[in-house]
Amino acid sequence: MSKHTHAFQAEVQQILHLVTHSLYSNKEIFLRELVSNASDACDKLRFEALDNAALFEDTPNLDIRLLVDKEKRTLTIRDNGIGMSADEAIAHLGTIAKSGTRDFMARLGDDKKGDANLIGQFGVGFYSGFIVADRITVESRRAGLDKGQGVRWSSDGTGEFEVETIEKAERGTDVILHLRADEDDYLQAWRLRSIVGKYSDHISLPILLKKEVWDAEKSAYVATDDWETVNKASALWTRAKSEITQEQYDEFYKTLSHDSEAPLAHTHNRVEGRSEYTQLLYIPAKAPFDLWNRDKKPGVKLYVKRVFIMDDAQELMPTYLRFVRGVIDSADLPLNVSRELLQESRDVRAIREGSTKRVLSMLESLANSEDQAEKDKYAGFWKEFGSVLKEGLGEDFQNQERIAKLLRFASTHASEGVSLADYVARMKEGQEAIYVITADSLAAAQSSPQLEIFRKKGIEVLLLTDRVDEWMLSHLHEFEGKPLQSVAKGAVDLGKLQDEAEKKALEEAAEAFKPLLDKLKDSLKERAKDVRITTRLVDSPACVVVDEGDMSAHLARLLKQAGQSAPDTKPTLEVNPEHALVKALDGHAQFDDLAQVLFDQALLAEGGTLADPAAYVKRVNRLLLA
Ligand SMILES: Nc1ncnc2c1ncn2[C@@H]1O[C@H](COP(=O)(O)OP(=O)(O)OP(=O)(O)O)[C@@H](O)[C@H]1O
Q1: pLDDT reported for residue 556
Q2: Is 108 a pocket residue for ligand 1 (Cβ < 6 Å)?
Q3: Do 490 and 513 share a structural domain?
Q4: Which residues of the chain have pLDDT under 50?
């Protein structure tokens, strides 16, 4: 193949622009990214060679080498892994296959400056080479292909790249960085050694550098022909916990996840027994940009006896823990395990159950810690991932109780961080239910008329404003034997919290107001299922509620917003017999206008919208002018 020029996919051009403009504050990460690609390439070769040992050709020992040419000012990252064919080089180094790329770009905003954190999280991988290089040449040959079928890919990282066929004797890939004018630092062996030590020590393959000796004549270190290994070259998770520092754990996480922030917590265990495996699992500090996508695969890598098998092994972690990152290395699974086999394997099920329990324990120890810093970490976790964890209530029945204990809410007593256990501990004497209200926002929840009686009596109500809360309520019916009760559903029944005198007053008012209620029912017969007297209101004249078994108005709105159909259930209007407006209804000349306005206002107060706002305005104006 003669030389061909190709244009980068538009998204790659944007990434390249970002890389060179936003990441220079932490330049050295380019080496971590390229070494990690080299290590992945070796993992892939080892995996493919399980079925075809010939791929190893005559070099079964896999390694990564860093070569420096001080005259040409190049740094080469060489691996003898799987390599790339010409087509693969064009596809992999010219496009971004990752799903969600477009969404990601949109999140960066129009100026495309982005912040380094977000970009780091997305993982610029190969393109990070352009932070320090003004040209990158890749020479590669895929394992199994002929020596004449090597490929040279080259680009200055602007709009285009060139590809041509070359002879390449050794299998694998050379990534040759032509360093920018002011990047001589990366030609120094000590500098490379220190970066490898910092970011890539855990890489399980040897990373080799030419040994240098001091040359007195030249007054400089010069390279010899001997190679030396500069990393520990044993997979981090296989080492004893006591030999691993916090920094090493954190760096390993950063390589796994491309996150530039340290994780919140990790758990590292060797599990023995019926199923034998090692797990090293992390909870990130920040949610990834595509956390909301339930199709997002959990970020756990599967290894079998230290051989990499696959990324994102969904079967190893339930969907609601898809934010967890890490590695699971099984001693029992066969090396040629397929996705299909994973789905059926009892060992995999045992691993998933064990790992789920570990992650929940990790969260529990943060949440229940006496140490404020740990508690704050849990608060941070909840902010980032709480909504996803709630999915577990419906997904993982076995652990429902543990998950319920990890939930945190706002309430009428505290603006955040209220657990169900806190709530239960604060329940009033005689209180039988955990009261909740759902709304679109905290402000809407806090000012809901339905809360008035609870406020007056000092009874705490949980304010649920997350989009998944309605769904959560359909799975979580009780906690420690106390039912969760929506204050916007059914007639308010405070049970033992209401004294006899109050009950009697209500009955009497209902009797006295009967004629008025009948008139209201008649006026509102198209809109309200029923009209009744209530004691739940203190300052407001009226509110709307739905029956116990009906869908809440909030959920119906959410469904409609999401373009789904929701039943048009009529609410019940409850009126406050003590309120001046309600008292004024009796014998009012514009009874119908007032009744309709009362109903419209009740809808508005609980966050609803009016079907006919213009009619409402006209009625209010008529009343104002009367
Ligand atoms: N040394 C290498 N040997 C073989 N293939 C490589 C090598 N480096 C990169 N590639 C190929 O190029 C692709 C793109 O690499 P890049 O680093 O941009 O992203 P990635 O590794 O897929 O994703 P991430 O960096 O987020 O893990 C890789 O998926 C791989 O197929």
Answers
A1: 78
A2: no
A3: no
A4: 112
Pocket-testing residue among 15, 104, 122, 126, ligand 1, by greatest number of atoms within 8 A of Cβ: 126
Q: Which two tokens stand for residue 547?
A: 């029956």
106 and 190 within one domain: yes
Number of C-beta neighbours around residue 128 at 10 A:
27
Give the residue, by CA position, lying nearest to ligand 1 atom 22. 125
Same domain, 201 and 52: yes
The CATH number for 247's domain is 3.30.230.80
Give yes or no for a contact between 9 and 98, defined as CB atoms under 8 angstroms apart: no
Give domain status of residue 379, yes or no.
no
pLDDT of residue 159: 86
Residue stretches of the annotated binding site for ATP: 33, 37, 79, 84, 98-100, 121-126, 173, 339
Q: Is 280 helix (H, G, I), strand (E, B) or coil?
A: strand
The residue whose CA has the least distance to atom 30 of ligand 1 is 92
Q: Is the ipTM reported for this complex over the cut 0.90?
A: yes
| CATH assignment of the domain containing 472 | 3.40.50.11260
Give the sign of the dihedral formed by CA 55, CA 61, CA 62, CA 64. Answer: negative
How many other C-beta atoms are found inside a 10 Å radius of the C-beta of residue 444?
18
Say which DSSP state 126 is in.
Answer: G
User: What are 510's two structure tokens?
Assistant: 């209902």
Is position 331 within any domain? yes
| Separation of CA 29 and ligand 1 centre (Å) | 15
Q: Would the pTM count as exceeding 0.80? A: no
Please give the structure tokens belonging to residue 178.
């032509």
Q: Same structural domain for residues 101 and 149?
A: yes
Structural domain boundaries enclosing 450: 407-494
Annotated binding-site positions: 33, 37, 79, 84, 98-100, 121-126, 173, 339
Tokens coding 357: 């329990």
pLDDT at 496: 64
pLDDT tens digits along 2-45: 789 999 888 788 878 877 776 666 788 899 889 989 999 999 99
Report CA(268)–ligand 1 centroid distance (Å): 27
How far apart, in whole angstroms, are the C-alpha atoms of residue 400 and residue 390? Answer: 10
Q: For the stretch 334-346, what's the b/e string if a residue is b when 16 or more beta carbons lie within 10 angstroms of its beta carbon?
A: eeebeeeebeebe
Assign residue 512 the CATH number of its domain. 1.20.120.790
Is the Cβ–Cβ distance between 47 and 306 less than 8 Å? no
Is the same domain home to 139 and 279?
no
Domain shared by 181 and 246, yes or no: no
- Report whether residue 299 contacts ligand 1, using a CB cutoff of 6 Å: no
Residue 392 within any structural domain of the chain: no
Q: Enumerate residues 6+ apart whose C-beta is below 8 A from 208.
A: 63, 64, 65, 66, 227, 228, 229, 230
Question: Is residue 144 located within the same domain as residue 209?
Answer: yes
Ligand 1 atom closest to Cα of residue 79: 1
Q: What is the pLDDT of residues 434-473, one digit of tens each?
A: 999 998 889 889 988 889 889 988 999 999 999 889 889 9
Distance 318 CA to ligand 1 centre (A): 27
Closest ligand 1 atom number to CA of residue 93: 12
Nearest CA to 357 out of 392, 309, 384 is that of: 392
- Please report how the helices 29-48 and 246-257 are oriented relative to each other, as an axis angle in degrees rounded to 10: 70
Q: For ligand 1, is residue 125 a contact (CB within 6 Å)? A: yes
Give the chain's length: 626
The two tokens of residue 330 are 């099984």
- Residue 37 Cβ contacting ligand 1 at under 6 Å: yes
Q: Is 126 in the pocket of ligand 1 (CB under 6 A)?
A: yes
Do 129 and 72 meet the contact criterion of CB atoms below 8 Å apart? Answer: no
Specify whether the CB–CB gap between 593 and 524 falls below 8 A: no
